[in-house]
C-alpha cells in the first residue's frame, strides 16, 4: 500500500498537468461519471495522507491507492485503467484504486492537522486524540489515519523500532516523553522515507521491517499480527519496551 510519502512523490510528478484541460476521460468500473471531467481544468493537486486529490473548480476527485494501486504518467499498460485522464500533451492513468467525487470544500472534509507530512501538522492535536482512547495500542495509534494520516505499516514498524516501543504498548501507559518521541520519529522517518523512495533506496535502509535479526541485539525478530487491523508487526522483544 502506498504510504503518505509515496503520494507526495506522485503529487510532485504530476505538476505538469496543473492548469491543463481534460479532453477525454474514462473509468473502467463506472464508479465515477467521467463525463463531468471532460473540458474541466485542473486547478491543482493536493494530498492528505494516503489520499491523492485532483482539484477542479467545483469538485475534487479523490484517489485512494488501497493495497495494490499503481499509476502511469504519459504512458499506460495493456490493462484498462481505473481512471484515465487525457490531456492535449499527455495522460494520467490510475490502476486498482478507489475513486470518490468530493463536492464539499476540502477543509470541511479533511483535518489537515492530522497529516504527518503537512505544514499544518499539530503534535498537540495528535496527543489529544490519543488521550481520548485510553486503551489505544501504539501500533493502532500510528495506523489511525485520523491521528497520523499517511502512516502505513512500513512507517509504523520502523518508527516503533527507532523509538524502542513494543507495538502492543498501551499509549496511555507510556511516559509523555515516550509519546512525543514516537511522534517525532514518525515525522522524521516519514521524510526519510520520502527521500529514500525517490532515490530508490528505501528497502536498503529498513532496520526492522521484514528483517530476521535485530540490528541492536542480534536476536531473532518477532513477527505478529497486532492491533485492530491485524497488520504484521516486526519487533525485538529485548529493546522494544512494552508499556501496559
Automatic annotation (TrEMBL):
The answer to whether UniProt assigns keyword rRNA-binding to this entry is no
Q: Which CDD domains match?
A: BaFpgNei_N_2
Q: Where is the Formamidopyrimidine-DNA glycosylase catalytic domain?
A: 2-94
Top-rank taxon of the source lineage equals: Bacteria
Per UniProt, the keywords (alphabetical) are: DNA damage, DNA repair, DNA-binding, Glycosidase, Hydrolase, Lyase, Multifunctional enzyme
Q: Which SUPFAM superfamilies match?
A: N-terminal domain of MutM-like DNA repair proteins, S13-like H2TH domain
Q: Where is the signal peptide?
A: none
Q: What's its catalytic activity?
A: Hydrolysis of DNA containing ring-opened 7-methylguanine residues, releasing 2,6-diamino-4-hydroxy-5-(N-methyl)formamidopyrimidine
Sorted alphabetically, which SMART domains does this protein's record hold?
A: Fapy_DNA_glyco (SM00898), H2TH (SM01232)
Keyword presence, Transferase: no
Q: Where are the transmembrane segments?
A: none
What family does the entry list?
Belongs to the FPG family.
For this entry, the protein name equals: DNA-formamidopyrimidine glycosylase family protein
Origin species, per record, is: Mucilaginibacter lutimaris
Amino acid at each position: 500500500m502506498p504510504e503518505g510519502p509515496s503520494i507526495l512523490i506522485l503529487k510532485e510528478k504530476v505538476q505538469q498537468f496543473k492548469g491543463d484541460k481534460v479532453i477525454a476521460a474514462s473509468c473502467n468500473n463506472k464508479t465515477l461519471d467521467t463525463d463531468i471531467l471532460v473540458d474541466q481544468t485542473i486547478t491543482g493537486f493536493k494530498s492528505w495522507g494516503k489520499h491523492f486529490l485532483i482539484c477542479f473548480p467545483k469538485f475534487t476527485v479523490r484517489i485512494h491507492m488501497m493495497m495494490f494501486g499503481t499509476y502511469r504518467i504519459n504512458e499506460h499498460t495493456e490493462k484498462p485503467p481505473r481512471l484515465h485522464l487525457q490531456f492535449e500533451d499527455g495522460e494520467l492513468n490510475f490502476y486498482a484504486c478507489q475513486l470518490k467525487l468530493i463536492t464539499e470544500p476540502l477543509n470541511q472534509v479533511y483535518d489537515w492537522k492530522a497529516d504527518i507530512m503537512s505544514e499544518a501538522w499539530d503534535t498537540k492535536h495528535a496527543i489529544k486524540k490519543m488521550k481520548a482512547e485510553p486503551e489505544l495500542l501504539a501500533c493502532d495509534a500510528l495506523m489511525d489515519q485520523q491521528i497520523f494520516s499517511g502512516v502505513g505499516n512500513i512507517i509504523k514498524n520502523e518508527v516503533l523500532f527507532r523509538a524502542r516501543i513494543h507495538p502492543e504498548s498501551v499509549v496511555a501507559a507510556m511516559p509523555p516523553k515516550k509519546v512525543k518521541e514516537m511522534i517525532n520519529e514518525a515525522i522524521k522517518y516519514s521524510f526519510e522515507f520520502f527521500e529514500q523512495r525517490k532515490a530508490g533506496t528505501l528497502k536498503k535502509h529498513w532496520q526492522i521491517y521484514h528483517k530476521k535479526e535485530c540490528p541492536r541485539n542480534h536476536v531473532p525478530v518477532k513477527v505478529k499480527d497486532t492491533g485492530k487491523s491485524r497488520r504484521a508487526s516486526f519487533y525485538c522483544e529485548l529493546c522494544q519496551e512494552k508499556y501496559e
